[in-house]
Amino acid sequence: FDTLHVEYVWGVDSSTSTGIKTVRPNTFSVYPNPVGNELAVDLSSFANQALTVEIENMIGQRIFNESRTASTGSLLNINTADLPAGVYLVTIITESGVYTQKVVKKE
Questions:
Q1: Helix (H, G, I), strand (E, B), or coil: what is residue 18?
Q2: What pLDDT does 16 receive?
């Protein structure tokens, strides 16, 4: 049998010549994980930075998008009660890079 192995490594810097933003190691936390009705995203490590928070499901559909400037101790609470159970990616986009965490939504 012929097999193909594809591996994705989180936190690998991409070339700036491609126009793709640099992916950085995770520097924010999301909790609880797995999540029930509300997800908290800790933005305190991005204090005084403009950013966008996105949540996508595993087929790439964006289900949440909010832009803001984070402040010290900043916490974003997101209502997840209506989301179906599954795996989601929480992404923070800043001028300095893209940061992603995986979150599991329980029933």
A1: helix
A2: 46
